[in-house]
Fold:
Amino acid sequence: MTENSDFSTPTSHLSSMADIESQSAPRSASEVPTASASQARQRSTAPAASASPARLAPRIARFLRRYAIFLILAALILFFQSREPAFLRINNLLSVLQSVAVVALLGIGVTVTLAVDGFDLSVGSMAAFTLMLTSYAMVVLQFNAAQTVALALLSGAIIGLLNGLLIVWLRIPDLLATLGTMFLLAGLQLIPSAGRSITVGLNLPDGSVATGSFDPAFLALGRSKLWDSVPLPVVIVALLACLFWFLMERTRWGRVFYAVGGNETAAYLAGAAVKRYRILAYVISATLAALGGIFVAARVGRGDVFAGSSLLLDSVAAALIGFAVLNQRRANVVGTAVGAVFVGIVLNGLTMLNVPYYTQDFVKGLVLVGALALTFGIGRGRR
Amino acid sequence: MPASSHHDIPSLQLVDVSKAYGSIRVLDQARISVRRGEVVALMGANGAGKSTLAKIAAGVIEPDNGQIFVAGKEVRLASPRMARQHGIVIVHQSTNELGAPGLSVAENLVLDDLCAGTFGALAGKRKIEQRAKTVAAGIGFELELERDFGELGPAHRQLVAIARAVATKAAILILDEPTASLSAAEAARLFSVVDRLRGLGVGILYISHRLEDIRRLADRIVVLRNGQIVANQVRPLDLTAAIKAMIGRDLDTSRTPGTPGSPRTPETECADSVSGLPDVASLSLDDGAKSRVLPVLSLRQVRLRPGTPRFDLAVAPGEVLAITGALGSGKSRLLGAVFGLTLIAEGEIRLLNRPWRPRGPREAIAAGVFMAGEDRWRSSLLPPITPGADIAGTIALPHRRRWFPFGFVHQSREQVAAEQSIRTLGIRCRNGRDTLDLLSGGNQQKVVIARWQAAPYRLLLLDEPFQGVDVGARRDLIKAIREARQDSATLVATSDVEEALEVADVVAVMRNHTVARLYDLRTGDAASFLTAISAVEHDEALDAERADPV
Structure:
């Protein structure tokens, strides 16, 4: 819907606009130029013609729908900057990015599952589980960094596969299946350490003391900075975002992901391996969540039981806000990344203005509802 | 409805109704009236404004200006609910809007009662069933009441919706392409329902492309073209004049059943090499086979379902075979078996003389066996907001491996294919980036056919390809199907006998999951065609007597 010129109404209703098309029907030379025929010609040249006042309003509306999130973001930045001059400092902006990198990563996973018309509720738990798993692997099992990362990503892929199989084979509805996995992982992460956070020198249930420690190379994943300023996770997440944008928007595999989500029957009849793509979407989402958990673990440096509790809602919010970006009205990687940054900037700005922390969730909710209203409400104003 | 004794006051009257979207006028001062007990046929080519007019009358959309009178009183129909309160009920063309999947047929039949709250607080299963039976009896169809509505095919969905509308004792019933997905037998029963309603004084606005319907039913014909009323006939009807008014030119009658063996023009535009597909010429003929030409597809002693009779069928290269028969006679199942959607119970299917057992569409497509399913929005098209839901993306989807071998979607590659399809089939659109919802039904269907003709194929399976398609678009589609490559074959399943005779070289009549008769239209003379037609209709009538829905 990006290039609709003069009737920009995003028509989800199939036939209401169907009749319009026919106005270009009388094109044969023998056709007597009737009123409607001349209108048809007018329409075909409309994009080139200068905008008459009557046509300006829908154009403005379309512009607003496409760029509303960016406009609001710019307004917010100006507002925060006017109140707190430190806001636009590069270090502050980088800290915003650092804080949203994991959210964006999980959001991309959610985006891929949303693209196949699914939903992964277990990403937050997956990240938290990975945090505990990596800590346990290093502190108790004395794995090194490479082994730990490999174990974490592998476990992510396996959990994703489990999600996918539950949904595709057992036909459990996606929300319920991943809700189940969410609880499963949230509970599982507590068992090895008997419900305690994992730190160096952890007392094990059998009375002994764990002798391992966090591998410095592992901690570097979350703490090192490129060019002394850009946190490594931000760079990796940015690269992954580009990769997944390319995958989802520019390759035939991306087309199939979206086709499966749009109309599963049609995708199947067009020769798509529907089940494989469905499962793959959950594998991708859980693996990305595991990577997110690695970043959190590397930054925090301890297996905190309560870390990552807000990751699910934040990443889902980012993906949903992404619907409104550029008026896409579907899950998309760029939108998700923008959505994550948006939430990060709002929270950072409010923190700098000393707004109490306990209002954060309320503000996030406000942002999400506003973005969704923008996407689904205003976009369908004209019918 | 209070019986108005004034026969000259129309039950429904639209006066100078206009509707525009942006700068495009969809309806231009249209006037139409429907009287008590009158069937008004509304004709018009693709997107002439028929659906818009119907939706205005049904309160789905409001006109920009103009007046609406119900029984002589001016009213405002701001919503379908208001229209219903005035006794106007519409049965939509789109099969998605006909009922609620997830509920049973019985629950759907009494949905209006349930929603209006007139059913009473307790809606027990038996009470619903009893009420549903009366509703179903109103149109004389036997429906499987406990089945899920979502499992029904388009024809049965439509029947449920019509039964519902009839049950509300509407004064005006608007039927939007009601027979588009019905078999001849079911259509005949629908006609008797319409007749009965007419006798009860219901005014009916009947939107259809099908001349047979109009000939049979219409008391009056109103023709729309480009949003304007261009003809308004009373009986005796002159259908030829109506068609001329509708499309603004004479019908091309170059290919009718009366001109058999018309020379084929080999399709040269589709210049892709048939790489990867087995070559016909290189295959040796069946040793001592009865036919000289190796069939593209042959079915030997096939039993489609356990307990149904066996049959043989063969399709030669360059041949168009139409399979006709009532709904549930096994047409779709036969196509599905060839495409790898279902398994046959017994027998063997051979593709180019090799055993053919595809495990699914993927394998079938890779081997050059393509299928366009019925009900395009369910089987072929993606919602408009999906990436790749435009014309170019729709066409490219099944050919993505071949066209984008490295994964990267070449926008220009699919655009070229789209533009070629737009030219070849005369798809009316702005460009290949238009989403399908912007096109009218006939043009949507052209995109679906174009998708499967965009790459070389061995066998093309088309299930009800003319569903909801007007005369002009149908002719374009038939031309495209008939101009297919010489070494490929096409199988068309249609419940419409006229369509079958128009498109096919050979017509196979199916009944009870078996091919009952074959008519080769190329070898017979005009007289035997007529016999064939009447014989086909006779078969249909037999089917109707058996009345075995799916």
